[in-house]
Every structure is written in structure tokens, then in C-alpha cells.
Amino acid sequence: MSADGPEDDRSIEGRGVEGYWDLDQLVADLSAARARWRQAQQHHAEYGAEGFPSRANLAKIMQSLCGALFPLRLGPSFVRLHNEDAFVAETLQTVLSRLYGQIRLELIYALKDEPAAVVDREAARIIGGFAQSLPGLRELLDTDVDAAFLGDPAARSVDEVLICYPSMLAIIHHRLAHRLYELGAPLVARIISEIAHGKTGIDIHPGATIGQSFFIDHGTGVVIGETAIVGHRVRLYQGVTLGARSFPADEKGHLEKSLPRHPIIEDDVVIYAGATVLGRIIVGSRSVIGGNVWLTDSVPADSNVRQAKAHYEVTSRVEVSAPHRVHALLESTDGIGENI
């Protein structure tokens, strides 16, 4: 402390704070730590050694793809019927090229032992298949928009659903991410799903298979695991989890990956808020799973699963804490309780 009071940042900066640490030693120690980790993981290079798929770039790509799929609602304000096709053509030409670049970055690592020509050919196959899928994905998303409009009495139009509902943003991202996951770009797909998760609070793994006319009402806190299979016309409410019950391990204690461990939800099922459905079980068609149910066993079609009724007692807080207010209510001339 100086004679004039505590030192401020300027006085410290002027004196030089680098003396508080040994920069050369820090850099050397961090380099050694990275080397030990790579050796333990048997990695000769990390993701990122040749470049890494960018979450920021993929967020921009997804925004453009949403606009290309729904140009008059999710596209920029200048789009009208007369220039809609031109906007879609220009957008797709740019955004598919950028997405190809992100896919290629993933494949450089995934195919690290292959020559560059193989990486380029595989990236071209993935982006080509993805591009050809877009018209079908648009038609599939139309069924989701209709399901939300028909399933929510608060929805006044399909446009409102598309523009306002966070579940639609999550579903659009999932449909696109799932196609990339199927085609062989699981990391790019996972980044896309996490972009939607961050924006909406809805966590859908890109590996999950979801049928048409899917609706998530409200949506915050919904979790759908990698190997979940969801049928047609399924409706979920906020806080629903389609998760795994256990995680089998190999002889070394490492978790086994990609085993079927999440539920199968058949057609026309409704799962209400807070329900948790765990394990590779089957929820039969047209079943209704009540709020806050914890379900770990399969149920047949047309089942109604609900919590046992809770026993509770209702008492008057006014009568317990302030009986004089009750008497004032009873003595009031009009019964409304003007003296309370």
C-alpha cells in the first residue's frame, strides 16, 4: 500500500506484474501436460491441429439454412414472393459451401490416416446427400408445424408457431443435424444440436430418430438421448426426459458407446411435464404418460400411466394465522370482506 492509499491497477501495471509468474516455466509445463494427455489418449494430434469445426460459423450456417427452408418467415426482411427463389438459390450456394468446409474439418481428423483426396471425396458425398435431403426435410418440418398448431389451443396460426415457438427452432436444428449424423458427420451434427440446446433449453441428441408430426409444448428442460426412437404424432411437454437407465462398461471399466439404451416411444403417445422415461423400454402406441411419472418398464399400447394420488391436506392460512380476518369477513354486510 502506498502512502496515498491502496495501489490501483495503473501503479501495478507501471511497475510490471510479470514478475509474479515464470512465463517460460508455465508454457513448458502446459506443453508437457498436453503431451501426456495426447500420449494417454493415443492421439498424435488433437482436433484443431488442422482446424476445427467452428460453433460460431455453424450457428451462422444454421441461421441461413433456416432462412432457406422458410424464406418468408425465417429469412431476411427483404424476401418477398417475387424474389424468394433467387434468395434461396443464393443462400444455398453460399451456405452449403461453408457447411462443406466445416464437414471437411471434421473428416481431416476422423480420416487422419487417409490421403486428402479421400477426405475431399467423403466430404463431397456428405454435403451432396445433405443437399438432396433438404426438400424432404422441409416437408417433414411442415408436419411438425401443423402438429404444434393443432396441438396447442394458444396457437393462433402456423406462422406464429414457426416464428415464436422455441420447440420449432429445436426441431429444425434436430432434423438437419440428424441427417448429417446419418451421413457421417457426427461432430458437426452434435455442435448443431448444442447450438439449439443453448438457445432453447431443449436437448435432443442428433442420433435420436424422430417421426413426423412431432410437437414439444413449451419445451424447456426436455432431454432426448442418442438412441431414442420416437414415432409419429408424439407430443412431449416441458421437463420430459427420454434417457438411459444404466451405462454398461467394458472389462477395463470404460463405458460402452452407442448401445441402444434409450426408450422407444411408439405412435400417438403423449408424455406430460416432468415425466422421466428411462432405459430401452417401449411405450406402446396411444399411451399417455402423466406428469412427474418415473417409468423404467415397458407399457402396452393404450396405457394410461400416472402417479399414485398424493395425500394432502388443505387448510386456510388466514384462519390459522389471522382468525380476526375471518371474523371480519363473516361480519361484512356484502360478503366481500371490505374490512379485511
UniProtKB/TrEMBL annotation:
| InterPro entries membership | Hexapep, LbH_SAT, Ser_AcTrfase_N_sf, Serine_acetyltransferase, Trimer_LpxA-like_sf
In terms of PANTHER family, this protein maps to: SERINE ACETYLTRANSFERASE
Keywords recorded for this protein, A-Z: Acyltransferase, Amino-acid biosynthesis, Transferase
Q: Which reaction does it catalyse?
A: L-serine + acetyl-CoA = O-acetyl-L-serine + CoA
* The UniProt record lists the keyword Amino-acid biosynthesis: yes
Say which species the protein is native to: Sphingobium rhizovicinum
Taxonomic path: Bacteria, Pseudomonadati, Pseudomonadota, Alphaproteobacteria, Sphingomonadales
Tell me its EC number(s), please: 2.3.1.30
Which parts of the chain are coiled coil?
none
The entry sums up its family as follows: Belongs to the transferase hexapeptide repeat family.
Q: Would the keyword Isomerase be found if you checked this record's keyword annotation?
A: no
Its EC top class is transferase
Q: What is this protein called?
A: serine O-acetyltransferase
